[in-house]
Amino acid sequence: MRGQFFYPGRLEYLANELLGIYERKKGFPVEPPIQAEMVAESVGLDMLYEEIPQEPGRTILAEIRPKARLIVVNERRLRFIEQFPGYLNTTVAYELAHWWLHVDHAALDHAALPDFIHSSAPIRPEDGRDKRDEYNADELMSYLLMPKTLLLQRAVKVDLQGWRGLYKLREDFGVTISSMKVRLQKLDLTYVDDDGHFHKSHQEARGQGSLF
Amino acid sequence: MKELRKARGVSQRELAGRVGIDFTYLSKIENDRMVPPSESTIERIAEALDASADELLVLADRFPSDLADDLKDTETIGALRRSLAGDFESFEDVKRALSKRARRKR
After folding, report:
1. Contact B28 A49 (CB under 8 A)
2. Contact A159/A23 with Cβ under 8 angstroms?
3. A212 pLDDT above the threshold of 90
4. Which of B5, B31, B32, B34 to mutate to test binding with chain A, by most A CBs within 10 Å of its CB?
5. How far apart are CA A152 and CA B4, in angstroms?
6. CATH number at residue A17
7. A68 and A129 in one domain?
8. A75 and A117 share a domain?
């Protein structure tokens, strides 16, 4: 539900649950790159690319239409999205994360009784009254497209102390370079400081904070 | 078509690439935002999905062009009507029978 707090472990569990459903439908183990649209379809969502009416001061890349069970990518912004490798995949995964975390699936199937109000309003990332929702969706996207075990298997084969290694992993996993950097940093496998210098960990970059 | 594609484990992008159409266009067809594509596109989609072109054409409310030619021939129609008399409950059944007949002719 919206506004709910999820522990990182819970988000990882929910991402793995999604991958499990996809894997069972597919019939063999998932391998990177994980295509978010295929995972979305495995849980009953459809993909549509069409123009989303522009609202003043807002940039809408994509949205979820819960009642129609649709992930809609804004065709007007598609050229922009496709400029950045992996951006379309992470955008779709982000919408899927909203569907998995913030849509009351049972209510969607609820009979249209007089005292029951169906919400058919689309969910757009910018709608987040609570920034926590956006953070949670972003985290789940990260766990979904870059599962820890699969990432570790490949991370040991590249040099994580330079961009070349990160770009190789980005390509393997079909995500944006910023998503890959953040994921690797959260796993404490590398750290890139504000000046673009690589460190083995965040702690190494900051130095010893205290003696005790 | 959407169900066929999903059953084959093919993404919209992959199918669109195989058929030579834009994936955004395919998404619109699948979600009834556009009228079904041309007969030749439907045939290419069927081939890419290893499905029956006639079946997809019927689902798209299109008649195979060779069948349409046959239907201009009054003798064929007469024979068809006689052979179909009483055997079908709906127009959909007739269309299916016509498609089967066209396949046999090929």
Report:
1. yes
2. no
3. no
4. B31
5. 35
6. 1.10.10.2910
7. yes
8. yes
Least CB–CB distance from A48: residue in B9, B13, B27: B27
CATH classification of the domain holding A165: 1.10.10
Whether the Cβ atoms of residue A25 and residue A45 lie closer than 8 Å to each other: no
What is the extent of the structural domain holding A171?
148-212
What is the total count of domains within chain A?
A: 2
Confidence band, pLDDT 50/70/90 cuts, at residue A56: confident
Mean pLDDT across A159-179 = 97
Given A145, A180, A197, the domain boundary residue is: A145
**ipTM of predicted assembly, 2 dp:** 0.82
